[in-house]
Amino acid sequence: MMPEYTLPLMLLLPLLGAIVIAFSGRWPNIREAVSLVTAVSLAILVFSWFPAISDGARPQITLSEPLPGLSLALSLEPLGMMFACIASFLWIINTIYSIGYMRGNREKNQTRFYVCFALAIAAAMGIALADNLFTLFLFYEILTLSTYPLVAHKGDAKTIASARIYLGVLLATSIGLLLPAIIWTYVIAGTTDFTVGGIIEGKLEGAAVGLLLGLFVFGIGKAAVMPMHRWLPAAMVAPTPVSALLHAVAVVKAGVFSVTKIIIYIFGVDFLFSQPSAQWLQYMAAFTIITASVVALYQTNLKRMLAYSTIAQLSYVIMATVILKPLAEIGAAVHIAAHAFGKITLFFAAGAIYTASHKTELWQLAGIGRRMPITMAAFTIGALSMIGVPPTAGFVSKWFILAGAFQAENYLAIFTIIASTALNAMYFLPIIYFAWLSPPATGVDMDHGEAPGAILLALSVTAGLTILFFFFNQPLLDLEGQLVESLPL
């Protein structure tokens, strides 16, 4: 097993990378090489811990104690291991994609972009490694602040207004709801440490349990549970690599990861869902899934449609967690990974279309498959994964979630998953059909080819991973199976 002091290196590597990137801004090739080397180095460090965590190791290190009883501490367990692997690996792919996208669109402030991206990854690593709520909150806020310049990247009035919505919603929810929830937990439990089985049982009963759960769930605005979702469509003004960061690499994944970790390690699933006052969460998750899917169905802008799709897909994780059956708990964790591969592919494809043709509306995509076959093949794979069609990653996670719902005889979850899958098909399949089989719309320029090679390489890799995950997912299933060993069958 690697020594515990390597845990802080997962934060320090992207931080040091950000500093070097800032000083190499005059030399674009060096700047982008530094970003890529840093991403690869971080992924190697993170994945080197995978065998030990799979074998049951739980490394922990305390960095400081800034407040009495509240420590800044890092640890690594199966859920955090998975999140760290996803974020670090996809940073590599996103960096390759960003090189093609930022240069292809001649974006301004590229050095600031790469610096903030590295800072956001450092914050994501902090969230993945957080040993307690205090540490989680600190890095959660850093992630919000470091991604604001990325969302506001274009700098025009419309972009700045949307970026303020992004920042305002996330800060208001975290400071107004999440922070009081953490303080309340500390007061009643005497600790904020993530503990197997939870720390709330015997300290809180009745309606107060549901209230505390509500403060956590809605306070973690990055999970985008309605009505705390408005920031996500607003953030679509950002460049596509940033959208990929928000939807697949770090931000929304940090949200559902945090909610899942709090349910498992702060409340404890056995205790939480023996409380009638906590049952509202499955209904809210179901409402978010269906409502966001219906809204996505009526979108005409490609990125906004993908944004509402993400809102629905995130609540799959929340619903799976509250089903309280081992198969569903594994499905919740696996869906974080499956959604990451599928959704980053979709956003990469959307960015490729914009770079090559500046098309953003769905009606403009008729016949585009003949001009951009690689891009649309990747888009098709990503879309089929969101629907849950084999052989894609999305089928694996939906299988586990649905199996857990049948295990629990949870008919609300069964109906929600089936209905939302039908809605997914209703808004993705027409795009695929028109892109490949329809003639171009009248007046739409089709005098273009594929996007630059770096973009095609990145989206081809993520599309391939979306399929490979269907066949080679056992290491992740074994790792996340450790989460549910204590749950009743």
UniProtKB/TrEMBL annotation:
<dbReference type="GO" id="GO:0005886">
    <property type="term" value="C:plasma membrane"/>
</dbReference>
<feature type="transmembrane region" description="Helical">
    <location>
        <begin position="377"/>
        <end position="401"/>
    </location>
</feature>
<feature type="transmembrane region" description="Helical">
    <location>
        <begin position="113"/>
        <end position="130"/>
    </location>
</feature>
<feature type="transmembrane region" description="Helical">
    <location>
        <begin position="245"/>
        <end position="268"/>
    </location>
</feature>
<feature type="transmembrane region" description="Helical">
    <location>
        <begin position="305"/>
        <end position="324"/>
    </location>
</feature>
<feature type="transmembrane region" description="Helical">
    <location>
        <begin position="136"/>
        <end position="153"/>
    </location>
</feature>
<feature type="transmembrane region" description="Helical">
    <location>
        <begin position="413"/>
        <end position="437"/>
    </location>
</feature>
<feature type="transmembrane region" description="Helical">
    <location>
        <begin position="33"/>
        <end position="52"/>
    </location>
</feature>
<dbReference type="InterPro" id="IPR050586">
    <property type="entry name" value="CPA3_Na-H_Antiporter_D"/>
</dbReference>
<feature type="transmembrane region" description="Helical">
    <location>
        <begin position="336"/>
        <end position="356"/>
    </location>
</feature>
<keyword id="KW-0472">Membrane</keyword>
<feature type="domain" description="NADH:quinone oxidoreductase/Mrp antiporter transmembrane">
    <location>
        <begin position="130"/>
        <end position="421"/>
    </location>
</feature>
<feature type="transmembrane region" description="Helical">
    <location>
        <begin position="449"/>
        <end position="472"/>
    </location>
</feature>
<protein>
    <submittedName>
        <fullName>Cation:proton antiporter</fullName>
    </submittedName>
</protein>
<keyword id="KW-1133">Transmembrane helix</keyword>
<comment type="similarity">
    <text>Belongs to the CPA3 antiporters (TC 2.A.63) subunit D family.</text>
</comment>
<dbReference type="Pfam" id="PF00361">
    <property type="entry name" value="Proton_antipo_M"/>
</dbReference>
<keyword id="KW-0812">Transmembrane</keyword>
<feature type="transmembrane region" description="Helical">
    <location>
        <begin position="280"/>
        <end position="298"/>
    </location>
</feature>
<feature type="transmembrane region" description="Helical">
    <location>
        <begin position="207"/>
        <end position="225"/>
    </location>
</feature>
<feature type="transmembrane region" description="Helical">
    <location>
        <begin position="72"/>
        <end position="93"/>
    </location>
</feature>
<feature type="transmembrane region" description="Helical">
    <location>
        <begin position="6"/>
        <end position="24"/>
    </location>
</feature>
<feature type="transmembrane region" description="Helical">
    <location>
        <begin position="165"/>
        <end position="187"/>
    </location>
</feature>
<keyword id="KW-1003">Cell membrane</keyword>
<dbReference type="InterPro" id="IPR001750">
    <property type="entry name" value="ND/Mrp_TM"/>
</dbReference>
